[in-house]
Design a protein that fits this description.
Elements (H helix, E strand, L loop, with lengths): L5 E10 L12 E8 L5 E9 L5 E8 L3 E6 L16 E20 L6 E5 L2 E2 L1
């Protein structure tokens, strides 16, 4: 049977952009995960920083044949982790079964807003 995804995804360019001048648009980062398997996936998010200890213990459960979007500008996990604007980090996505993941950023600091995805490494 063909593997549908990977158990580990690493996105090295996390950096929540500051808010722009227009309150109608929220600059943000988001993690999108798709589970193409029949069984539920349990996913842990680990945030690695340059100058402080990692933050872990943030779990997401994802039913089979479903997707989810985790907004990284909102409180995360039971401790309500807030990443803060302009903080550089790496996001390590660890799943108990293979999943597909991508990471995107909406930067609204200028009139010509940009949404782009950040390349990930999977293993």
């Amino acid at each position: 049977m063909m593997e549908k995804g990977k158990k580990n995804w690493v996105f090295c360019d996390g950096y929540l952009p500051p808010h722009g001048d227009d309150p109608n648009f929220d600059g943000h980062e988001a993690l999108m995960v798709t589970n193409l398997n029949a069984e539920k996936a349990t996913i842990e998010l680990v945030f690695v920083f340059e100058d402080k200890e990692p933050e872990d213990g943030i779990f997401v459960e994802l039913d089979g044949m479903r997707m989810t979007c985790v907004r990284l500008d909102k409180p995360l996990g039971p401790k309500g982790l807030m990443l803060g604007e302009a903080v550089q980090y790496t996001l390590w996505v660890k799943s108990d079964i293979p999943v597909c993941a991508c990471f995107g950023r909406l930067d609204v600091r200028q009139a010509n807003m940009s949404y782009y995805s950040v390349d990930g490494y999977s293993f």
